[in-house]
Amino acid sequence: MRRSVRLDRRIQAGAAQVFLAVRGGEPSWSELGTRLDGLRAERFLVVTDGTAPEATLAAVRALAADRAPTAVHDLRDGPLPAAARAGAVVLAVGGERACGLPAEVRLPTDLAAACGPALALHRPVPNALVWVRADQLAARPAAWTRAGTVAVVRHVLAVCPAQYPTLAALLHPGARYDEPTLTALIALCADARAALVCFDPDETGPALALGYGRSLAAAVRAVAGPDLAPGDAEALGLVLAARVAERLGLAAGATGWAHRDLLARNGSATALPGGVDVDRLTVALVNAAAPGLLLLADLGRPYCADGRLLTRVDAAVLRAAVEGLADPVGTGVPRSRAAVTEPALAGAVPAAGSGSGAL
Fold first, then answer.
1. 351 burial type by CB count under 10 A (0-12 exposed, 13-18 middle, 19+ buried)
2. How far is CA 83 from the centre of its chain?
3. Are the C-beta atoms of residues 7 and 21 closer than 8 Å to each other?
4. Considering the entire predicted model, what is its pTM?
5. Distance from C-alpha of 333 to C-alpha of 320, rounded to nearest angstrom
6. How confident is the model at residue 212 (pLDDT cuts 50, 70, 90)?
7. How far apart are CA 18 and CA 284, in angstroms?
8. Cα–Cα distance for residue pair 296/279, rounded to 1 Å
9. Residue 7: CB partners within 8 Å, gap ≥ 6?
10. How far apart, in whole angstroms, are the C-alpha atoms of residue 300 and residue 140?
């Protein structure tokens, strides 16, 4: 028998608030419609990035159009013009790109977006509603769910290490989880964010930990993106950050092992794919690290020196970290994931299995 899910959280970021609502099942659309009524919009603008299931996008568009004139902007066609959103209530539907824009209502359709940018404060919007359908997340291709659990791994490593044993027991490379499990993962990320952004809404202090490894991940994606599965750049960003901390003598080897352990359990890449240009990647990492990197002295404990949470790292250390991630086999595919049959990202997926463990 299917277990119903319901989660409500409020994330206070200074004077701003993000309201999170996780629901399940088609009847929940009517509740979303009621919430849209409360916005009293004169016009809606639905912004998407091409990753949302067509049925979800159509349902949101229909709900909005029943209440006010509604336009749609696809970010694949170009950035959202400022004039397009003037006077409109923006509904962001899709993945991290769509949910990373200022929007009064955010409807993340994959776990990475639901655990990350959908929950963040995006000025100038002072209050936002994040609406998540757990049943739809459970039906997404395993590759996208695995990418999302990398975001959960980041939160556990950098913010709430007490959840390490539970998450380690839960993760598996097949990346199929039931609705209550996915809801618990989102709750973990929401609670971690709420604990940090209440007094650091701009994420320039302790809340920098929420972006642990992401600048390095962006550099990896820019250089090796075509050879990586969804979420693998983020995973490699975490491993690189741990290796840098080890080489600088800031963290013990056990900290890096914990990074690799969780990511391996998730079926994520922990080595660079064969053929990556080390020189080009080093240059990209040097540029990404120019403002400094948030590094961990231990799980959940960012390294701080002279009141700074961002540590300067020279090119030699970054290059050594890259060379240490070379894949001796040359495939770049984790052994744990290679044994898992992946459905096509745009095709039908098997029925979601149940995850084990509670967070």
1. exposed
2. 29
3. yes
4. 0.91
5. 22
6. very high
7. 34
8. 26
9. 20, 21, 22, 183, 186, 187
10. 30
**Model pLDDT for residues 36-90, shown as the tens digit of each residue:** 999 999 999 999 999 999 999 999 999 999 999 999 999 999 999 999 999 999 9
Structure token pair of residue 52: 């949302």
Above pLDDT 90, what percent of the chain?
86
Contact 173, 333 (CB under 8 A): no
Torsion of CA 297, 298, 302, 305, to 10 degrees: -30
DSSP lists the bridge partners of residue 48 as: 74, 93
Q: What is the 3-state secondary structure (H, E, C) of the chain?
A: CCCCCCEEEEEEECCEEEEEEEECCCCHHHHHHHHHHHHCCCCEEEEECCCCCHHHHHHHHHHHHCCCCEEEEEHHHCCCCHHHHCCCEEEEEECHHHHCCCCCEEEECCHHHHHCHHHCCCCCCCEEEEEEEHHHHHCCCHHHHHHHHHHHHHHHHHCCHHHHHHHHHHCCCCCCCCHHHHHHHHHHHHHHHHHHHCCCCCCCCHHHHHHCCHHHHHHHHHHHHHHCCCCHHHHHHHHHHHHHHHHCCCCCHHHHHHHHHHHHHHCCCCCECCCCCHHHHHHHHHHHCCCCEECEEECCEECCECCECEECCCHHHHHHHHHCCECCCCCCCCHHHHCCCCCCCCCCCCCCCCCCCCC
Provide φ and ψ at 311, rounded to 5°.
-105, 130
Other CB atoms closer than 10 Å to residue 168's CB: what's the count? 16
The pLDDT, as a whole number, for residue 359 is 78
